[in-house]
Amino acid sequence: MKKLVLFTVVTVMVLALGAPAFASQCPILIKQANEQMAKMDQNSAKVKRAKALVEEADRLHKAGNHPESEKKVQEALGLLM
């Protein structure tokens, strides 16, 4: 019984501490995309589309929707490569 309780407590702690760490990927990826866009022609269609995706990713991140935010910023990074 003690092992089950200990396992449950450890699992809850890992999940609670792991979620914020995952959420912190959004700002890192957004920064990476912004830095990449800064090196490119700001008038190109790719950069304009990527910029819109990054702005959407930032809004999603601030709203707490981290999986969708990361998906959008990854799409933007794909355009910039």
Overall description:
The chain is mainly α. The chain has four helices and no strands. Helix 2 runs antiparallel to helix 3, helix 2 runs parallel beside helix 4 and helix 3 packs antiparallel against helix 4. The longest helix is centred in the first third of the chain and has 22 residues.
Low-confidence stretches: none
- Give the termini distance in whole angstroms: 53 Å
Major beta-sheet overview: none
What is the helix tally? 4
Structural class by secondary-structure content? mainly alpha
State mean pLDDT (0 to 100 scale).
Answer: 83
Q: In which range does the helix fraction lie?
A: over 70%
Shape by Cα distribution: elongated
Total strand segments: 0
Rg result? 18 Å
Count of the domains: 1
Order of H and E elements: HHHH
What portion of residues belong to β-strands?
Answer: under 5%
List the helices and strands and how they pair.
Blueprint: H1 2-23, H2 25-38, H3 45-62, H4 66-80
